[in-house]
Predict the 3D structure of the following.
Amino acid sequence: MAGDDAATRRAGAVLTIDLGAIAANWRGLRDAGRASGKPVDCAAVLKADAYGCGAALVGPRLASEGCRQFFVAHIDEGITLRQVVPDHSIYVLNGLMAGTEGDFIEHRLTPAINHLGQLNAWRTAAQRFDRPLNAVIHVDTGMHRLGFGPDELSALINDHRGRLRGLRLALVMSHLVASEEQQNPVNGEQLQRFRTVIQALPGAPASLANSSGIFLGPDYHFDLLRPGAALYGINPLPGQPNPMLPVVTLEARVLQVRRVDAFQTVGYGGAWRASRPSRVATIALGYADGYFRTLINRTHVHVAGKRVPVIGRISMDLVTIDVTDLGEAECQPGTAVEVLGPHQSPDDIAEHARTNAYEVMTALGRRYARHYVEGSHA
Ligand SMILES: Cc1ncc(COP(=O)(O)O)c(C=O)c1O
């Protein structure tokens, strides 16, 4: 098991995060943006604690790599990130909530302005605090979730000088609905709508592509790429080989190994019944650590590189695995079991749990001992 410190000795499971792989993934995406010869910049999306990887370390690591623009969802995520990323742009995607204008200004955060009400409030703040303020305009081109819809957009475009008075338009952005489906016509439709918008708001940098959007090609790149998932090793091309480096390894410790007779059951509800005399190992993680209950009888782990089925219900703190086919010496109390790693990616586990790797990553537990390594990724 990685590490030999006291926290690791006490921990039920150890999460190892390869900061060097995150940095290499960022460089690869940045270079994809530059491949067309245009000066496309690459930001990093660090919301949800950098998709579970730890924004406090990922932020500075990417800043040292040359990343100068960061996105979070909540203002509090921005305030926390500001402490470790003092000099670069931090954009708050969920926007400006009433009464938080002073917090944005104090921590030099830029809200994504999602509707006219927020724009009015931000313009008023610029007057009240008597200083020009940066703003991101988020345009809805089809997600129908956040951002300026057609009517509000027309109102903005028709009087953009007045509506943006005292503000500096740092970015016009939109978000793709189905960028991971390369053949989906909605991508092209959103692209056309976005082009129309930026023609009407000239001069501002533009951003459309999330991770998968980058792989839709240079038409989607505009001035700024906005990857999150791919930085953390999630496959931006589902169904195709993953071009990103893996980032996380999760190892859980075996607490106990026991013999179970044929026909005896294991765990809550007796949801798994032995068909033969078996050996069952209990490992130290559970649904409280983000190991989903939907994984019941549907996934596996690896012990000494060998695939071992997860059996029975997932408990809050414990998971049981069938180690009957392993040699006894291979699985003892204390043995490290690979839950995520070279043999099984977050995308694999997501498929077993019928979710996506984003949810697997952002659910990664707070009880794991965490190790940050640099890997070796030139
Ligand atoms: C507005 C916006 N931009 C960019 C991203 C990053 O997307 P991805 O993680 O797919 O790269 C997200 C994440 O959901 C987002 O909400």
About this structure: Residues 45, 93, 175, 210-212, 226-230 surround pyridoxal-5'-phosphate (CB under 6 Å). The chain has a mean pLDDT of 96.
